[in-house]
Recover the amino acids of this structure.
């Protein structure tokens, strides 16, 4: 299957290893990965901060960059949800009917990585090897917007060598919330602090999630507190095999 | 519209920062909300048709709101024909003036109150006090808050920020006739409040209530409660005055059934609440001899005119969204600057009051958009969607003025992000500066407006190469 990668502006700029892992993983599974160079950003940060007008060119840009693909994967449940839930209405609000039609057509083709693997491609064992203690934080938008359910956990359970431990109060928000973390830094820090405590209770060496944004947030606190806990995107663990990467934990 | 007791509140982030420092508040809230979350999930899980009930409730409310003119006229006609009087209040001041004149006409200098959100919204107690009329709150938690000179912090559990030791101290200090040997056992505390309240019930000549529902077909009002103190207020006084928001209307008793299944499970995690009182006008020889219904707008028609915001008028004040909200759990209700705290307050307050004051403009941002509120809402209010919509209103209201640092930063980010070329250049510049800004791949301190982040968290330093640069280098720039 030919699958277009929407890497997201965050992973493109700050976490390229997540995007590279998606490419390695999908190619290992026999798929062809395309990367439309015209892509930039889904516009979520602007929309969720109240800058709706500024979001519209990004909706147009996304629609043009991905219009010709039947399947689009992204290593972010949050950005996938933005495209699925908000792009069609935003495109319609421009009055451009062709754009609105295209956005409507593209929205259901956008998949978060675990949803694509489990629900579209029907795979849970991707042949990965990762011999470390891992705990998984389900991002809010993966749970409550993309409704991926336990797809990420099913994928992780099938990883050879993994010691997967349950995260207490896993479904509680980590407190990132995009610009929420800047506009309400104290509340955000209080939420993050509880997530850090939960992660530490598990004794995990690696905190895994399907959103780099949550990992940047909780990982930033884990690093500040010198906990020694690493953060890795789900794609990085799934891409890891005995030969590729040898199942090593990413450096702190 | 006004909510007199909340004038001049600081914006949410500042009020929240103060609340976060209150260790006892944090402890009380975490304990109470986590307990009710578990119980609610169990109570809701018992019903196999919860999703259908939720969809029905949403449909009933949407239908009623779309035909509010018809149902309000019907309600007025039925209440009047059942012997009641109906008054219309455009705002809080009008509602309070109507109630004050009705109490004065009844010759009373004290009233007993059923727990009511809408009279907190109008600041009725303060308006009565200005006319030397004492309003006694009879809901146990409202009484605790009133005795303490405090404000409610939760829709259903107004004293959720207090534990029983604190309540014992409040009673000993402020409740006339509290026994000197009062302990902090819940039964002791309830007993002390009961004997204090019973004395006043027997002498009260005027009762004031809100209503959970108003049924247009029959002109019947409904109050749902746990303690029975509400029923005392509704039945003992000679005059009953009910202040009700115009969105509380339901077409018929058949519709009520749906809500009586949803509300108790969502709010107190009970299959059925202990007391459901209904009354229709006046009944000679039974209950109040005079009944007045004050129907209040106070910003509701403005909310109704907002196509995305109007769903907030479906709210039945169950408070399930408060109990699951990770922000509310840590800040408590006072930081929201309104009787309506938590996620629902963050949308209802700006819809009713507008977004001009600092607190009202900050409320739509008092959420990480985690979506837990929408999941539990029994009338399916998409609170995250409404929050995002209201954030747009806040930003648009400031667009004509001189741009602040946030608007400049967001404008620059949008300019960069709408062009793949500019994004690539920005990434290359960032990668070039990585040794300068970061140490061992981490940034310890960022300038404003990003400084709030690095106060408690490291930020990642840019990588040596962006994804798109890696792709172009390894696959060739023309290779999509």
């Amino acid at each position: 299957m030919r699958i277009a990668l929407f890497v997201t502006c965050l992973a493109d700029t700050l976490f390229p290893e997540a995007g590279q892992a998606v490419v390695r993983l999908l190619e290992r599974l026999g798929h062809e990965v395309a990367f439309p160079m015209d892509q930039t950003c889904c516009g979520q940060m602007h929309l969720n901060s109240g800058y709706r007008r500024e979001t519209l060119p990004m909706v147009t840009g996304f629609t043009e960059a991905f219009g010709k693909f039947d399947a689009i994967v992204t290593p972010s449940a949050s950005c996938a949800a933005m495209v699925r839930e908000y792009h069609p209405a935003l495109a319609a609000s421009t009055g451009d009917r062709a754009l609105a039609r295209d956005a409507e057509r593209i929205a259901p083709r956008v998949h978060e990585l675990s949803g694509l693997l489990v629900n579209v491609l029907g795979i849970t064992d991707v042949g990965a090897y990762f011999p470390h203690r891992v705990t998984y934080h389900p991002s809010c938008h993966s749970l409550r917007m993309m409704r991926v359910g336990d797809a990420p956990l099913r994928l992780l359970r099938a990883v050879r060598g993994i010691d997967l431990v349950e995260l207490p109060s896993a479904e509680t928000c980590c407190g990132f919330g995009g610009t929420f973390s800047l506009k309400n830094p104290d509340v955000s820090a209080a939420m993050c602090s509880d997530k850090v405590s939960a992660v530490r209770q598990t004794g995990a060496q690696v905190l895994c999630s399907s959103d780099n944004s949550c990992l940047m947030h909780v990982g930033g606190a884990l690093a500040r507190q010198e906990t020694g806990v690493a953060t890795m995107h789900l794609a990085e663990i799934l891409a890891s095999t005995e030969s590729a990467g040898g199942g090593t934990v990413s450096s702190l | 519209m006004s909510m007199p007791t909340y004038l001049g509140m600081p914006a949410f982030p500042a009020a929240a920062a103060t609340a976060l420092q209150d260790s006892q508040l944090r402890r009380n809230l975490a304990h109470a909300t986590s307990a009710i979350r578990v119980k609610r999930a169990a109570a809701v899980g018992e019903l196999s048709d919860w999703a259908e009930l939720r969809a029905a409730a949403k449909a009933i409310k949407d239908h009623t709101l779309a035909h509010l003119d018809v149902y309000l006229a019907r309600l007025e006609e039925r209440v009047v024909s059942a012997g009641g009087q109906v008054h219309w209040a455009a705002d809080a001041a009008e509602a309070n003036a109507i109630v004050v004149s009705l109490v004065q006409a009844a010759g009373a200098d004290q009233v007993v109150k059923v727990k009511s959100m809408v009279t907190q919204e109008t600041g009725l107690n303060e308006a009565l006090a200005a006319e030397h009329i004492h309003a006694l709150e009879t809901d146990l938690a409202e009484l605790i808050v009133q005795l303490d000179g405090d404000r409610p912090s939760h829709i259903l559990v107004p004293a959720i920020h207090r534990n029983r030791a604190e309540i014992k101290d409040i009673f000993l200090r402020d409740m006339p006739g509290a026994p000197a040997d009062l302990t902090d056992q819940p039964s002791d505390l309830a007993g002390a409040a009961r004997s204090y309240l019973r004395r006043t019930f027997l002498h009260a000549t005027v009762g004031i209530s809100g209503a959970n529902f108003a049924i247009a077909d029959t002109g019947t009002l409904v109050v749902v409660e746990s303690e029975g103190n509400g029923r005392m207020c509704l039945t003992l006084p000679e005059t009953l005055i009910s202040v009700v928001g115009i969105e509380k209307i339901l077409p018929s008793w058949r519709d009520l059934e749906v809500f009586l299944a949803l509300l108790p499970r969502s709010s107190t995690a009970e299959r059925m609440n202990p007391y459901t009182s209904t009354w229709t006008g006046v009944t000679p020889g039974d209950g109040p001899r005079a009944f007045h219904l004050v129907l209040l707008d106070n910003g509701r028609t403005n909310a109704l005119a907002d196509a995305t915001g109007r769903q907030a008028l479906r709210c039945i004040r169950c408070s399930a969204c408060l109990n699951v909200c990770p922000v509310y759990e840590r800040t408590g209700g006072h930081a929201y600057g309104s009787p309506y705290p938590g996620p629902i307050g963050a949308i209802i307050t700006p819809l009713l009051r507008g977004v001009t004051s600092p607190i009202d403009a900050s409320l739509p941002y008092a959420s990480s958009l985690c979506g837990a509120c929408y999941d539990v809402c029994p009338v399916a209010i998409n609170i995250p969607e409404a929050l995002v919509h209201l954030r747009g209103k806040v930003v648009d209201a400031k667009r004509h003025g001189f741009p602040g640092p946030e608007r400049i930063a967001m404008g620059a980010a949008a300019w960069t992000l709408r062009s793949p070329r500019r994004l690539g250049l920005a990434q290359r510049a960032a990668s070039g500066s990585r040794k300068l800004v970061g140490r061992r791949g981490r940034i310890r301190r960022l300038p404003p407006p990003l400084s709030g982040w690095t106060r408690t968290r490291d930020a990642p330093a840019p990588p040596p190469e962006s994804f798109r640069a890696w792709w172009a280098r390894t696959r060739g720039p023309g290779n999509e």
